[in-house]
Amino acid sequence: MNIVILSRNAALYSTDSLIRAAQNRGHHVRVIDHLMCDLVIEQNKLQIYYYNEPVDDVDAIIPRIGSSSTTYGAAIIRQFTANKVYSTVRSDALLKARDKLSCLQYLAQKNIDVPKTVIINNQLMIDEMLDHIEGEQKIVKLTSGTHGLGVILTESNQNAESIIEAFQKVRQKSLIQEFVKESDGSDIRLIVVGDKVVATMCRQAKEGEFRSNLHRGGSSFAVTPTENERSVAIKASQLLGLDVAGVDMLRSARGPLILEVNASPGLEGIEGTTGIDVAGKIMQLVERKADANWRKV
Ligand SMILES: Nc1ncnc2c1ncn2[C@@H]1O[C@H](COP(=O)(O)OP(=O)(O)O)[C@@H](O)[C@H]1O
Ligand SMILES: [Mg+2]
User: Three-state SS for 190?
Assistant: First the structure.
């Protein structure tokens, strides 16, 4: 099979892990930097060029699109899927998942529990809207942040208000959430591939920190999710239309709450923590899906 990995850097752990998994299974694999791709669009003809060479005869793509190139990355995925190439992430799914606000809207409307979230656009109503969330402590976060950057724990409404105002001033979209204190600086990440959870880890924030991201110094260990956690993670990925996803969940007093669903989950933390060959599982999925695609044509 001819597989293309869309990635800015072949040396990144996740990209490298996927390359090795593809090669081990006898596939031809190529890394293409999506930001160096150009597109030509004509009636019934959507061509992708990489350094002016047409990119043809691709069976499947595995996009690893970073948060700084979401929009153009989505356009590249769309061009491939328009040509019936299988993608582990469709462009609309990437766009839905990448924005924390839209992700929460899609999940909540389908009966998935999430931390109660408020979006404040009317500056005159900050105080009143903050009262929709109980408790003195609240979480304020950027809708497009990653790695825990732009996630702030506020101690009072006054404190929250000044942060919201500062974000508005620099034209950054933010949301306010109930602080799920009982999760105690830990969350679980479930990796969904196809219709299965293939690996799960618990991440624990370092001392004095509430964000459990490994990039923020958190530590991790393998865990077995409950049946309910598994089914919520699979349902969330399917609702967003993601065949591969990293679902972040808080274990709250009222059950699992989804924080976000990552469309390009990093593989280093999860493979290192659990010892599971997630890249290999992704490759098995690609084989099944791209093959089914092929037979349909
Ligand atoms: N509402 C919340 N209550 C408690 N902890 C939270 C809440 N939101 C985020 N966190 C903590 O902060 C971390 C980062 O938040 P997240 O929304 O996943 O942003 P990012 O995309 O930057 O990872 C989470 O993994 C979790 O540990
Ligand atoms: Mg996260």
Answer: strand
Atom of ligand 1 nearest to the CA of 259: 17
Q: Which residues contact 189 (CB under 8 A, 6 or more apart)?
A: 200, 201, 203, 246, 247, 248, 249, 265, 269, 270
- Res 184: pLDDT: 85
Residues at Cβ < 5 Å from ligand 2 ion: 248
Angle at 20 between CA 266 and CA 249, to 5 degrees: 20
Closest by CA to 203, choosing from 133, 143, 157, 270, is 270
Give the chain's domains with CATH numbers: 2-89 (3.40.50.20), 96-111+182-263 (3.30.470.20), 117-179 (3.30.1490.20)
Ligand 1 close to Cβ of residue 141 (< 6 A): yes
d(CA 250, CA 147): 16
Model confidence pLDDT, tens digit, residues 140-160: 999 888 889 999 999 999 999
139 lines ligand 1 (CB under 6 A): yes
The H or E element that residue 195 is part of is none
Q: Measured in angstroms, how far is the CA atom of residue 259 from the centroid of ligand 1?
A: 6
Residue 259 has pLDDT above 90, yes or no: yes
Taking the C-alpha atoms of residue 31 and residue 15, their distance in angstroms, rounded to an integer, is 8
- How much of the chain, in percent, has pLDDT values that exceed 90? 93
CA of 99 to the centre of ligand 2 (A): 12
Q: How far is the CA of 272 from the centre of ligand 1 (A)?
A: 21
d(CA 93, CA 103): 9
Mean pLDDT score across all residues of the chain: 95
Distance of CA 235 to the CA centre of its chain: 15
Q: What is the pTM of this model?
A: 0.94
177 lines ligand 1 (CB under 6 A): yes
